[in-house]
Amino acid sequence: MTGPSDAASGALSNLSAGLWRIQELLELLTYRLEVQHVLIETGRTRWMGRSTREIEIVIGEMREAELMRAVDVGPVCELLGLAEDTPLSEIAAAAPPPWDDVLEEHRDALTKATQELSLLSRSNSAMLEASYRAVQETLDRFNHASQASSTTYTASGARAGGAGRHLFDQKS
């Protein structure tokens, strides 16, 4: 016959397994963002689409893992007499040994991983924005230069008027 401590242990074990899954996905997301960072730094735009899709897939998996974690936390909070929206730090504080330490370690690892991801994501966004601006400025220079040189010359060196040349057809 199983007692309340067995039920709590099972519920805490399920919660811990779900938190491990989230940590694994955060690590995978970090890897994917670092790969994207290298692609941006080196200008290897060929793989940017694929990199972005892979990041989106991991984010989708994280959403699913978070839903599972939300399901797993319910029984733990009920057994510990806590509200379902109790933060992990409080759940860890209320959990019996050794689960208190296990959950606190999960919380620390998740906090560290999310901080690292936040920095990496901001860095990638800034680099992409800078790249976008550089491309726009280059295109603008080409278009302005070709508009400024709309005057052409004949074989004798005389100026001949004519339509401006553009890098791209600007008619809609």
Automatic annotation (TrEMBL):
Record field: compositional bias (Low complexity): 148-158
Biological-process GO terms, alphabetical: bacterial-type flagellum assembly
Domain of life: Bacteria
Region (Disordered): 148-172
Name of the protein in its database record: FlgN family protein
